[in-house]
Specification:
By secondary structure, the chain is an alpha/beta fold. It contains seven helices and 17 strands. The relative contact order is 0.13. The strands form three sheets. It has a six-stranded antiparallel barrel with strand order 12-15-14-13-16-17. The chain has a five-stranded parallel β-sheet with strand order 3-2-1-4-7, sandwiched between helices. The longest helix is centred in the first third of the chain and has 20 residues, at 96-115. A hairpin with a 2-residue loop joins strand 5 (127-132) and strand 6 (135-140). The protein has three domains: 5-181, Rossmann fold, CATH 3.40.50.620; 213-274, Adenine nucleotide alpha hydrolases-like domains (SH3 type barrels), CATH 2.30.30; 279-357, Translation factors (Elongation Factor Tu (Ef-tu), domain 3), CATH 2.40.30.10. It is found in: Cytoplasm.
Length: 361
């Protein structure tokens, strides 16, 4: 029996619960850790953390493993939330889940687990880690519909070398089946969506608490004023809902989409039609690069990329590579390239890393 100690990040969901179960079956000395990452307006109306803890505690009791609660809310505000606000204020659309993984779940959590004497940490992510000649690779999860490698692309060798992904080789239906067979109380629990501090609350209402509102005009690309926006931070490239533009223009009944944000002039630009050329980009520039192997991929080689989670892999090549920025060209134009989001590069099932999409195309 393997008596290595592994600390499992238990969120109260079925995925991390089955991860803990499988590790215990494999003979590990398993300990659960429930992370609290937000304080303040953490109420049952918008955030399920209280119920999540009860679910995690119930599973830990069934599995007969200890469960510790640790509060990382200070680290979260400093390392994740402050950047989240700064990016929105600059008109970009950040992905806090990416930063939360690299800064909290695989840094603050990892440091805490090692201090507890752990040999490994484990999470319920749908991803896989593979070692070849002392080099660690991050691979996609076997379940293509649940693969979460996109959110993990900023992990480094040290983090991967200490991480186990117990359910990465499973499909979601298999995970739920295992939970049901072992009578875990959260076997049918709905998957969590979004990030806890926003929850189901109105997004604009939430941002209003932290950032000043700055309304302005909505323009077409030819300069016609068609409405007023409530603040550029509330909108993202490709957005269709919530624009508040009534009627049609020149008989065009196609829906409106956000195509551009001019922060200096405080103007939101919109176009009509999902396939409008202004919504398509053949290339993008990424900054703040992070490569899992520690080395950059080859320039001009054909890879695949995702510019958003759940997107189909798009054939691409890195056409220019500098120290902390690169330009990526696509075989086919990509829809809704959004500054602030992550572009993640793959070679087959291997996640190589990626960077943050910048405004400069």
């Amino acid at each position: 029996m393997n008596k290595s100690r592994v600390v499992v990040g238990m969120s109260g969901g079925v995925d991390s619960s089955v991860a803990a179960l499988l590790l215990k079956q494999q003979g590990y000395d398993v300990m659960g850790l429930f992370m609290k990452n937000w304080e303040g307006d953490d109420t049952d109306e918008y955030c399920s953390s209280r119920q999540d803890f009860l679910d995690a505690a119930s599973v830990a009791d069934i599995l007969d493993i200890p469960l510790e609660v640790v509060n990382f809310s200070a680290e979260y505000r400093e390392r994740v939330f402050s950047l989240f606000l700064a990016e929105y204020q600059a008109g970009r659309t950040p992905n806090p889940d990416v930063l939360c993984n690299s800064e909290i779940k695989f840094k603050a959590f990892l440091d805490h687990a090692l201090a507890l004497g752990a040999d490994w940490i484990a999470t319920g992510h749908y991803a896989q880690a593979h070692e070849i000649n002392g080099q660690f690779q991050l691979l996609k999860g076997e379940d293509g519909n649940k693969d979460q490698s996109y959110f993990l692309y900023r992990l480094n060798q040290q983090q991967l070398s200490r991480t186990i992904f117990p359910i990465g080789h499973l499909y979601k239906r298999e995970v739920r089946k295992i939970a049901l067979e072992h009578r875990l109380p959260n076997s049918t629990k709905k998957d969590s969506t979004g990030i806890c501090f926003i929850g189901e609350r109105p997004f604009r209402e939430f941002l209003n608490r932290y950032l000043p509102v700055n309304p302005g005009e909505i323009h077409t690309l030819d300069g016609q004023i068609v409405g007023e926006h409530q603040g550029l931070m509330y909108y993202t490239i490709g957005q269709r809902q919530g624009l508040g533009i009534g009627g049609t223009r020149a008989g065009n009944e196609q829906p409106w989409f956000v195509s551009e944000k001019d922060m200096q002039a405080n103007v939101l630009y919109v176009v009509q039609g999902h396939d409008h050329p202004a919504l398509l980009r053949s290339s993008l520039t990424a900054v703040d690069l992070s490569w899992i192997s520690g080395a950059s991929p080859h320039q001009s080689w054909v890879y695949a990329a995702k510019i958003r989670y759940r997107q189909t892999d798009a054939p691409c090549a890195i056409t220019r590579l500098e120290h902390d920025s690169c330009q990526i060209g696509f075989a086919a134009p990509q829809w809704g390239v959004t500054p602030g989001q992550s572009v993640v590069i793959y070679e087959s099932k291997v996640c190589l890393g990626g960077g943050i999409i910048t405004d400069n195309v």
